[in-house]
Amino acid sequence: MSAPVSMLSFVTADDLARLDRLELVSQKLVNGHISGKHKSLIKGGCSEFSDHRAYSPGDEIRHLDWRVYAKSNRYYVKEYDEETSAHGMIVLDVSGSMNFGMETVSKLDCAKAACACSARLILGQRDPVGLAFGTGSVHDILPPRSSARHLHQILHKLHHAQASGDQTFVETLKTLVRQLKQRTQILLFTDGFFDLSDFESVLRQMTQRGHQIILFHTLAPEELAFNFDDGIRFECMEKDGLHRNVDPAEFADTYLERMQIFLTRLKNICIKSDSAYVPMLTDRPVSETLANYLRTRTGRHTRAAAGSH
Predict the structure, then answer these.
(1) CB atoms < 10 A from the CB of 309, how many?
(2) Which value, in Å, is the radius of gyration of the alpha carbons in the chain?
(3) DSSP 230-266
């Protein structure tokens, strides 16, 4: 049996200290946080009725409210309040483009570190968390669990994860839509180099089913600045044999314009689906990116809770 993988394989002790006092709180699912138990909206059960929401393909028919249908001729699902664990699912992009990194660590290594920290935070709340790699295969999905040894399983899989091949990240999300039965907080770690229309469609499905999405957009600084020397050769990291010789001085303006269009569209897709968009650059400590986001999020949650009383 292989030796356990330590958190220090991904981040420094200082990084861990920065995250120690922070909790990953869910805006939609959490009304309190005691011993990993959260008051969450779930579909059906014997708990107190809370509200209706429009039916989405994949919802269980037994939860339809037929009385409402008789009056409105529209399908609605009953929702209930119940004390339950807030499940988490971490999804890591392992397409070839994630190997990119010049003056910094690769996007893959940066995202791995963020995944490890996120899993530790969620499990620290005694909440179940799972891990999926963006390969499109059900065999690369580790179901959510909350046991103490589960962190070691996640770290082991992260340690051995490698990026290669074409983009199948969105296919993994489609698989999760079918598999996840409980409302889940889903953390996406990706550079976003996939078909955005396809991503927008699956993101809409996920949020319609009550899942909460946080996209950590992982990019290298060179991808944003395009500050390359003259006469550079670009090679595709997802398809063998695809390359192009480029004069950066001539191509820079076009590239930067298209990159800004891409960034704006991806961010707007997240905003439209009520999902969080978090830029994560490889030249910044992962702990800093996560800590800043979690402080902001915890502050919003606290203000929202105070306003409800």
Answers:
(1) 4
(2) 21
(3) SSEEEE-SSSTT-EEEE-HHHHHHHHHHHHHHHHHHH
* Continuous segment of H or E residues that includes residue 218: strand 212-219
Q: Is residue 129 in a domain?
A: yes
Domain coverage including residue 295: 7-37+86-307
The pTM for the full model equals 0.79
Q: How many domains does the chain have?
A: 2
Give the CA distances from residue 5 to residues 11, 79, 126, 153, 177, in Å, rounded to whole numbers and listed in that order.
12, 41, 20, 9, 30
The pLDDT tens digits for 192-222 are 999 999 999 999 999 999 999 999 999 999 9
Amino acid at residue number 247: D
Largest CA distance in the chain: 69
Reported as a single tens digit per residue, the pLDDT across 117-167 is 999 988 888 889 999 998 766 667 899 998 878 999 999 999 999 999 887
| Integer Cα distance of 165 and 128 in angstroms | 30
268: its two tokens = 């707007």
